[in-house]
TrEMBL record:
<keyword id="KW-0809">Transit peptide</keyword>
<dbReference type="InterPro" id="IPR036008">
    <property type="entry name" value="Aconitase_4Fe-4S_dom"/>
</dbReference>
<dbReference type="InterPro" id="IPR015928">
    <property type="entry name" value="Aconitase/3IPM_dehydase_swvl"/>
</dbReference>
<dbReference type="GO" id="GO:0005739">
    <property type="term" value="C:mitochondrion"/>
</dbReference>
<dbReference type="InterPro" id="IPR006248">
    <property type="entry name" value="Aconitase_mito-like"/>
</dbReference>
<dbReference type="Pfam" id="PF00330">
    <property type="entry name" value="Aconitase"/>
</dbReference>
<comment type="function">
    <text>Catalyzes the isomerization of citrate to isocitrate via cis-aconitate.</text>
</comment>
<dbReference type="InterPro" id="IPR018136">
    <property type="entry name" value="Aconitase_4Fe-4S_BS"/>
</dbReference>
<dbReference type="InterPro" id="IPR000573">
    <property type="entry name" value="AconitaseA/IPMdHydase_ssu_swvl"/>
</dbReference>
<dbReference type="GO" id="GO:0046872">
    <property type="term" value="F:metal ion binding"/>
</dbReference>
<dbReference type="InterPro" id="IPR015932">
    <property type="entry name" value="Aconitase_dom2"/>
</dbReference>
<feature type="domain" description="Aconitase/3-isopropylmalate dehydratase large subunit alpha/beta/alpha">
    <location>
        <begin position="69"/>
        <end position="505"/>
    </location>
</feature>
<keyword id="KW-0496">Mitochondrion</keyword>
<keyword id="KW-0408">Iron</keyword>
<comment type="similarity">
    <text>Belongs to the aconitase/IPM isomerase family.</text>
</comment>
<dbReference type="GO" id="GO:0005829">
    <property type="term" value="C:cytosol"/>
</dbReference>
<keyword id="KW-0816">Tricarboxylic acid cycle</keyword>
Length: 718
């Protein structure tokens, strides 16, 4: 049985057929022991089970499989009986592990506590990265966050200890970078309570962003449901070089597919161009796949992943993956629902924005486009880092540009911030001199956290409402996303382009062709950035920020202050009363009456947070009627007992007036594939009936009838 287990004391590697076992002694230095302690004893790789499931499905479907199909179908709860139709059937899956960031982990753990179960059924971790506000600098901001969020951190640490969940303390780094460094591996299926969980696809993993209630299902040992994804193939040819970076691949793809073009699909990269991209570069591409609505993205296993695994202390995993490489690449002749081809040798540096991540421009054009549209040309702030672009390679390439500027006596004209993705990255770039170069050119190194990328930025250089431009290496740039200022024009691009524009101070600067002026009057061009893919020496893990759960936490108490304004134990929602929903008021009201939200396209875009479903439910919301939903939010609504419904005819959206009342009828015969009806009652006494579609399956209808998925879970335990 090809199983791989890691423990603090030793590495155990089981290879080959049956009895061929190897034990690798843990002759580890102190830093390696710190890194090894991050793995749970029950963290395992079982390619035999993956192979068995894939063989069953391939025989049933009688066709070649894409890589994403292999990994997804390889995790089916019932590979022999599961109906498999792309884009239509719901798959019941058994993910290998769960990861939660601290903003969403609060609700996930509160729901898990309400389930009454004693311990999580799969390896799970909590990562403290979302609650640290960027204000002054890394150390000061981290200390401030620990004080402000003390009760949240205590709750998460104590809940993790009691229920068997690993806890990464504040300052450890961003969830997705920690997963890449420690938990992702080729062929794993991981779900995470953050929309950028697909970052792990850079290591050949299927990593999918979900809401907390989905995480509770997996932690409870219940099969997790996912609509069978379509598969979009992106064929890469040519080779990356010069100023072009992995970020430009996804910026180009976003321009092609738009923010909803990947909805319901996994984006699978393949082709000879893949080998010119580093493992962390592949992670960057997969990370930002969330911005096109993709379920996740993935790359095939190759030597770049093997090298990364070896450098991050997981050479034994690489050895097992090498022996099972046929499972970790697509079959020859497999079918994609859509194909996009990109020649990396012809791809130019891109910058996307403002206000949406799919408005793509070549960097060479952005100055003239900005002038034409009246966008501010002056770059006020350049921000590099985040979960999307904070690898050792990213920091090295940015630092190479900083050194060129410093050698000529130049510093950044714009403000410049640097966000390391993890404590390991921070410690290693400090050791190797990158951090000093970035500070010397004018940068401020922030805490190992999400920071400005998610809006945790106490920005003070412009007033709210003041029109200005920032450039970032982040993944999102929706209105007011980074600094709560709706007048900020945010552009996303690669760390090296951000650094170049921060040095020049203007969007009109094209680093491929334009010159900078040194203080002595000398004109010079920046040479294309360079940087090592991985450190020549091993990574420095830095401080140990991981808390491993005890073997038995049953006697421990979860720390929830009864007087807290931020946390409270959950009470169950009311069950469905068996009747149609009648006379629902339109839009959100807080007057103790039932109401319905009416929305437009891609409703719920951009977040995995359940609060957007829980709060309407608590306030009397019963249904959300829109033209289309973002995947994670639609599931979150179902989990909390609301009805996410779509117009059969999108033009019916215009029939609804703000003072209407709506009745949703047909609930007594609520069934998969059968539309419901809405009776729209206008204030003038007239009414009209429209048809509403839904994507509920039988299990999800039971969630609605029980009042929530959590209520149904508790019913099944009786």
């Amino acid at each position: 049985m090809a199983t791989y287990c890691l423990t603090v004391a030793r590495l155990q590697l089981v290879l080959g057929q049956g009895a061929r076992r190897f034990h690798v002694a843990a002759a580890l230095n102190a830093k390696a022991k710190v890194a090894m302690s991050r793995f749970e004893p029950n963290s395992s790789i079982n390619y035999d089970q993956l192979r068995s499931n894939i063989d069953i499905v391939r025989k049933r479907l009688n066709r070649p499989l894409t890589l994403s199909e292999k990994i997804v179908y390889g995790h089916l709860d019932d590979p022999a009986g599961q109906e498999i139709v792309r884009g239509r059937t719901y798959l019941r899956l058994r993910p290998d592990r769960v990861a939660m960031q601290d903003a969403t982990a609060q609700m996930a753990m509160l729901q898990f506590i309400s389930s009454g179960l004693p311990k999580v059924a799969v390896p799970s971790t909590i990562h403290c990265d979302h609650l640290i506000e960027a204000q002054i600098g890394g150390a000061q901001d981290l200390q401030r966050a620990k004080e402000i969020n003390q009760e949240v951190y205590k709750f998460l640490a104590s809940a993790g200890a009691k229920y068997g969940v690993g806890f990464w303390k504040p300052g450890s780094g961003i969830i997705h970078q920690i997963i890449l460094e420690n938990y992702a591996y080729p062929g794993v299926m991981l779900i995470g309570t953050d929309s950028h969980t697909p970052n792990g696809g850079g290591l050949g993993s299927i990593c999918i962003g979900v809401g907390g209630a989905d995480a509770v299902d997996v932690m409870a040992g219940i099969p997790w449901e996912l609509k069978c994804p379509n598969v979009i193939g992106v064929k890469l040819t040519g080779t990356l070089s010069g100023w072009t970076s992995p970020k430009d691949v996804i910026l180009k793809v976003a321009g092609i597919l738009t923010v909803k073009g990947g909805t319901g699909a996994i984006v699978e990269y393949h082709g000879p161009g893949v080998d010119s991209i580093s493992c962390t570069g592949m992670a960057t591409i997969c990370n930002m796949g969330a911005e096109i609505g993709a379920t996740t993205s993935v790359f095939p296993y190759n030597h770049r992943m093997r090298t990364y695994l070896e450098k991050t202390g997981r050479g034994e995993i690489a050895a097992v993956a090498n022996e099972n490489q046929d499972l970790l690449v697509p079959d020859s002749g497999c079918h994609y629902d859509q194909i996009i081809e990109i020649n990396l040798s012809e791809l130019k540096p891109h910058i996307n924005g403002p206000f949406t991540p799919d408005l793509a421009h070549p960097v060479s054009d952005i100055g003239s486009v900005a002038e034409k549209n009246g966008w501010p040309l002056e770059v006020k702030v350049g921000l590099i880092g985040s979960c999307t672009n904070s690898s050792y390679e990213d920091m090295g390439r940015a630092a190479s540009l900083a050194k060129q500027a410093l050698d000529k006596g130049l510093k950044c004209k714009a403000q410049f911030t640097v966000t390391p993705g993890s404590e390991q990255i921070r410690a290693t770039i400090e050791r190797d001199g990158y951090a000093k170069l970035l500070r010397d050119v004018g940068g401020v190194v922030l805490a190992n956290a999400c920071g400005p990328c998610i809006g945790q930025w106490d920005r003070r250089d412009v007033k709210k409402g003041e029109k200005n431009t920032i450039v970032t290496s982040f993944n999102r740039n929706f209105t007011a996303r980074n600094d709560a200022n709706p007048a900020t024009h945010a552009f996303v691009t690669s760390p090296e382009i951000v650094t170049a524009l921060a040095i020049a101070g203007t969007l009109k600067f094209n680093p491929e062709t334009d010159f900078l002026t040194a203080p002595n009057g000398e004109k010079f061009k920046l040479e294309p950035p360079t940087g090592d893919e991985l450190p020549a020496r091993d990574f420095d893990p830095g401080q140990d920020t991981y808390q491993h759960p005890p073997a038995d936490g049953s006697g421990l108490r979860v720390d929830v202050n009864p007087q807290s304004n931020r946390l409270q134990l959950l009470e169950p929602f009311d069950k469905w009363n068996g009747k149609d929903l009648e006379d629902l008021q339109v839009l959100i009201k807080k007057h103790n009456v039932s109401w319905v939200v009416v929305g437009d396209e891609n409703y719920g875009e951009g977040s995995s947070r359940e609060h957007a479903a829980l709060e309407p439910r608590h306030l009397g919301g019963r249904a959300i009627i829109v033209k289309s939903f973002a995947r994670i939010h639609e599931t979150n609504l179902k989990k909390q007992g609301l009805l996410p419904l779509t117009f059969s005819n999108p033009a019916d959206y215009d029939k609804i007036r703000p003072d209407d009342k709506i009745s949703i009828v047909g609930l007594k015969s609520f069934a998969p594939g059968k539309p419901l009806e809405a009776i729209i009652k206008h204030s003038d006494g007239s009414s009209e009936t429209i048809e509403l579609n839904h994507t509920f399956n039988e299990t999800q209808i039971e969630w609605f009838q029980a009042g929530s998925a959590l209520n149904k879970m508790k019913e099944l335990q009786k």
